[in-house]
């Protein structure tokens, strides 16, 4: 029998099964729901068979690990060779408190660092700026100058461990502080490994920590690409992020499509600057969410690798295979956590983490059970870290590569993710590209729609959330929460005042002036930012120069 | 109850850009027949009080995740009082620790809605409490 005939016969057999065995069963016991859907609201069929993957061509669509199109993984040995980096996103209060947390996490087996900055730092303000009222150290650690960065990494071997920093509008400045901190300890820039998030496009789309209009913001991003490719070969100059898009309420397919569209936009800007695509593309990295729907998430990760490899090779003509690789960090879904019965979050996080591992992640953060209530306590964060270690060492899932390949369901879902992504690519293109689509509120509207739909599904109990709309308990379950040092703010302001008093103010003025001049031209700003940072200019001062030259962006308000 | 539709200002105080909740609530209140004005993100207490006055609202709803509420909310309440808007119903939602609730009630914030609150519970609360 030919392959086609085999499929036809299989398809006929399936029809027969539906009419006989299945119908008989449904007549006696109807299914629990009229429709089954993923966390994203996508329909899920009762059964998947080879008919659903009929068009799959193994070599074209899956290939081998470490080979194009990388659907099965970016490395030939994947987690058999090296486990993912266990990288817990952490930061609160002062640099001292956060430094102690990093040491605690490293002591308990964490293998990479990840810095959470507070709101004022994310918006480029010093801790004592009027705009920072009440925000110091609340959602992360405050870093207002090189002095804070030195305390933050005191006693941590930054030449041996990689550090990821979730910073966007002020990414170049914070990165410069990290480089200068290492420099003062005698560690050259080229020895440093890590990541700056630096993904400004998703800030306009979802996370909303933009400062400047899109174009000058993109210029700063490309400045870091250029500088990094020449001076920090081990540094990921961007982490193109779907995480925040998903947290803002998007579906899995929207997360994938918008993130990859952003990625392609950065590549265009890099090329436009005159960089060779293979000069910077190998240092582009990604960051995805792992939400509740186990198979949908795995399909998303697999589709992401395939689409990126194809676009980089076919559309942009990259020839270095490292440019084709979609390497990614994953964080489990903060928005899936419930404030009610918080211990249940340990379980949610565990299977979300498992999906990330099965999806071939390079790095992972697992949320702590208390994160719908506060920043993580030591107790909660240790369980979250242990969850990764349990998956790595006890579950057995790391023993073979991409074990879900060939699953009719997973392959069909992977294909569907890819199709939806290309549909969105066409829509974005029709709007004139990513930036015009941002300015017209396209992404924001799509995400708001999806978020509202999701909430309505919960409100109408079409979607079950244990402990919230089902199995709720009258008496709240309480767990111990993190308490911050109440004297932290005073300590931070004292250090800032000390910095302003002790530094050479003429040098500060001169380096800021030089930066202002450079910002007005098309020169790469990174060397000038580094000079400001080395002179202990503060974050507000340096970002103030850019605010003055670039102006500030106001977004269209969309409900 | 008059025939006038309830007017609500949904505001995002402080630097916090997490606007998912604010937008969902704004839409839910609108779908429930209320007139909703959404300020957008990064609003100072002064901007919120001014918008409440200009829009002549019955309700101010503030959504916050960042933890800056104990610094920002008292200022909003003070400014509303200065604008003779003591009768405005002020509600809030987001990540608000239990131990802050008595102090918030004390300053006149009446509805405090944490994560997982069904939107119709908020709609009902507003309908019952708007004078």
Could you explain the architecture of this structure?
The complex is a heterodimer of chains A (559) and B (131). Chain A is built from 23 helices and nine strands. Chain A has 559 residues and is of the alpha/beta class. Chain A has one domain: Alpha-Beta Barrel (TIM Barrel), CATH 3.20.20. Chain A has a nine-stranded parallel sheet with strand order 5-4-3-2-1-9-8-7-6. Chain A has helices spanning 3-28, 58-62, 78-81, 95-107, 119-122, 146-152, 171-184, 200-207, 214-231, 243-247, 252-272, 277-280, 294-315, 321-324, 344-358, 378-394, 408-430, 434-439, 442-459, 488-502, 505-520, 526-534, 539-550, and strands at residues 85-90, 112-116, 163-166, 194-196, 235-236, 238-241, 284-290, 328-332, 363-365. Helix content of chain A is 51%, strand content 7%. Chain B is an alpha/beta fold and 131 residues long. Chain B has a single domain, classed as Rossmann fold (3-Layer(aba) Sandwich), CATH 3.40.50.280. In chain B, 41% of the residues lie in helices and 20% in strands. In chain B, strands 2-1-3-4-5 form a five-stranded parallel sheet, sandwiched between helices. In chain B, helix 2 runs parallel beside helix 3 (69-82). The longest helix of chain B is centred in the middle third of the chain and has 14 residues, at 69-82. The mean pLDDT of chain B is 95. The chains are: A alpha/beta (559), B alpha/beta (131).
């Amino acid at each position: 029998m030919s392959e086609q005939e085999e499929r036809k016969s299989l398809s006929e057999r399936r029809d027969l099964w539906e009419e006989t065995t299945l119908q008989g069963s449904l007549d006696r016991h109807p299914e629990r729901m009229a429709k089954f859907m993923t966390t994203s609201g996508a329909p899920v069929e009762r059964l998947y068979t080879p008919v659903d993957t009929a068009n799959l061509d193994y070599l074209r669509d899956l290939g081998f690990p470490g080979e194009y199109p990388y659907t099965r993984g970016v490395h030939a040995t994947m987690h058999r060779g090296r486990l993912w980096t266990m990288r817990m996103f952490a930061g609160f209060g002062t640099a001292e408190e956060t430094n102690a947390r990093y040491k605690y996490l490293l002591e308990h087996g964490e293998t990479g660092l990840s810095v959470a900055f507070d709101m004022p730092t994310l918006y480029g303000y010093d801790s004592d700026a009027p705009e920072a009222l009440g925000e110091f150290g609340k959602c992360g650690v405050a870093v207002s100058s090189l002095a804070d960065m030195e305390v933050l990494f005191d006693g941590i071997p930054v030449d041996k461990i990689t550090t990821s920093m979730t910073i966007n509008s002020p990414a170049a400045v914070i990165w410069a502080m990290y480089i200068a901190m290492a420099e003062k300890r005698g560690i050259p820039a080229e020895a440093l490994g890590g990541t700056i998030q630096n993904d400004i496009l998703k800030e306009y789309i979802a996370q909303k920590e933009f400062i400047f209009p899109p174009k000058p913001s993109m210029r700063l991003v490309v400045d870091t690409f250029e500088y990094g490719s020449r001076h920090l070969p081990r540094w990921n100059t961007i982490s193109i992020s779907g995480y925040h898009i998903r947290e803002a309420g998007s579906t899995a397919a929207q997360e994938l499509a918008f993130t990859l569209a952003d990625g392609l936009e950065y590549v265009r800007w890099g090329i436009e600057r005159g960089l060779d695509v293979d000069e910077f593309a190998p240092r582009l990295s990604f960051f995805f969410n792992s939400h509740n729907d186990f198979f949908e998430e795995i399909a998303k990760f697999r589709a992401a690798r395939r689409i990126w490899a194809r676009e980089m090779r076919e559309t942009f003509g990259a020839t270095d295979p490292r440019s084709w690789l979609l390497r990614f960090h994953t964080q489990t879904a903060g928005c899936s956590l419930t404030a009610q019965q918080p211990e249940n979050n340990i379980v949610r996080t565990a299977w979300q983490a498992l999906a990330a591992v099965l999806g071939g992640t390079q790095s992972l953060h697992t949320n702590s059970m208390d994160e719908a209530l506060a920043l993580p306590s030591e107790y909660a964060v240790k369980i979250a870290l242990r969850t990764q270690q349990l998956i790595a060492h006890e579950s057995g899932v790391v023993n073979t590569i991409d074990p879900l390949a060939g699953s009719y369901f997973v392959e069909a879902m992977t294909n569907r993710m890819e199709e939806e992504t290309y549909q969105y690519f066409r829509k974005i293109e029709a709007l004139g590209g990513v930036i015009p689509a941002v300015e017209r509120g396209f992404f924001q509207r799509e995400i708001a729609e999806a978020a509202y739909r999701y909430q309505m599904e919960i409100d109408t109990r079409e979607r079950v959330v244990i402990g919230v709309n089902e199995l709720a308990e009258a008496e709240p379950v309480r767990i111990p929460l993190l308490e911050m040092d109440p004297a932290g703010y005073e300590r931070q302001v004292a250090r800032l005042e000390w910095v302003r008093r002790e530094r050479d103010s003429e040098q500060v003025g001169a380096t800021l002036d030089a930066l202002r001049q450079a910002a007005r031209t098309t020169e790469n700003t990174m060397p000038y930012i580094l000079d400001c940072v080395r002179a202990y200019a503060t974050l507000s001062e340096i970002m103030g120069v850019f605010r003055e030259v670039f102006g500030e962006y106001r977004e269209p308000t969309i409900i | 109850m008059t025939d006038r539709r309830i007017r609500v200002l949904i505001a995002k105080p402080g630097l916090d850009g997490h606007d998912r909740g604010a937008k969902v609530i704004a839409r839910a209140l609108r779908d429930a027949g209320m007139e909703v004005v959404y300020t957008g993100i990064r609003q100072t207490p002064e901007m919120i009080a001014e918008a409440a006055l200009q829009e002549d609202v019955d309700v101010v709803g503030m959504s916050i995740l960042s933890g800056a509420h104990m610094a920002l909310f008292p200022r909003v309440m003070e400014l509303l009082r200065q604008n003779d808007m003591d009768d405005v119903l002020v509600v809030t939602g987001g990540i608000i620790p239990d131990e802050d609730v008595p102090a918030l009630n004390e300053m006149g914030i009446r509805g405090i809605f944490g994560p997982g609150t069904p939107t119709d519970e908020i709609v009902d609360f507003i309908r019952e409490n708007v004078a």
